[in-house]
Design brief:
Elements lengths: L1 H26 L16 E6 L5 E5 L3 E5 L4 E2 L10 E6 L4 E6 L2 E6 L4 E3 L9 H4 L3 E6 L5 E5 L2 E7 L5 E8 L9 E2 L8 E4 L2 E8 L2 E8 L2 E6 L4
Antiparallel strand pairs: 1-2, 2-3, 3-4, 5-6, 6-7, 7-8, 9-10, 10-11, 11-12, 13-14, 14-15, 15-16, 16-17
Length: about 220
């Protein structure tokens, strides 16, 4: 009797496990993207979802593509490069894309490359510098990091570049992390073999080094 009860309970447990497995299978739809279904390269360096809901995939070796859930689309770029590193969107529906050879800005309404207008001067030279990272902070400003400088780009209400702050760092690295942790536009950034909080004062970018949550060093470097 005990043996029969054990067998029955074992069968019931097995059926329950199979049922739960089927429920989980039906609840979650698993899909993937690879080289066989449109991914240009398997070295994915960045993923970004724009304000229209499209997924942008930056690959280092295959360039930049947009995925709509069904198909891949390669945008028209003024910069011909396959070394795409990061993507960010500003509040004026413009995509800032960093490549080894420079930075491209894409108008999401037209899907064409543009050079944002400036109140004075031109940012074409800045966009031509080797890119490392693009990032949009909580204030809607774009942080464009090149191999030598951290650049903060501020816009007016029409999307025109109204001000640019620049900070020169010394330790050249292929990858830089940046995040607006506090949500106030003073981003935290990993450069010069340390973690720094970048602050804009009197039109200049100043780095404040952080160590064990204690602020112990503040300095600026010449451009």
């Amino acid at each position: 009797m005990n043996r029969l009860t054990t067998i029955i309970l074992s069968c019931m447990l097995s059926l329950a496990c199979l049922a739960n497995g089927n429920i989980l299978t039906e609840r979650y739809n698993q899909s993937f993207i690879n080289l066989d279904n449109g991914l240009p390269h398997n070295n994915v360096s960045w993923l970004f979802t724009d304000s229209n809901g499209f997924l942008w995939i930056a690959t280092y070796g295959g360039g930049l593509v947009r995925y709509d859930g069904f198909n891949m689309m390669t945008p028209a770029l003024g910069l011909k490069s396959l070394s795409c590193k990061s993507v960010a969107e500003d509040r004026f529906k413009r995509l800032w894309v960093a490549f080894d050879e420079g930075t491209n800005v894409i108008n999401l309404n037209t899907m064409l490359p543009i050079v944002p207008k400036t109140a004075s001067g031109d940012i074409s030279e800045l966009l031509s510098q080797p890119g490392v990272k693009t990032y949009c902070d909580a204030l809607g400003r774009i942080w464009l990091i090149t191999t030598k400088h951290v650049n903060l780009i501020t816009f007016d209400e029409n999307g025109q570049v109204s001000h640019m702050g620049t900070y020169r760092y010394t330790d050249n690295t292929p990858e830089i992390s940046v995040c607006d942790i506090e949500g106030n536009g003073n981003v935290w950034i990993g450069i010069d073999r340390g973690l720094y909080r970048m602050v804009e004062k009197n039109g200049q970018l100043i780095e404040t080094r952080q160590c064990r949550m204690v602020q112990h060093q503040s300095r600026t470097l010449p451009l």
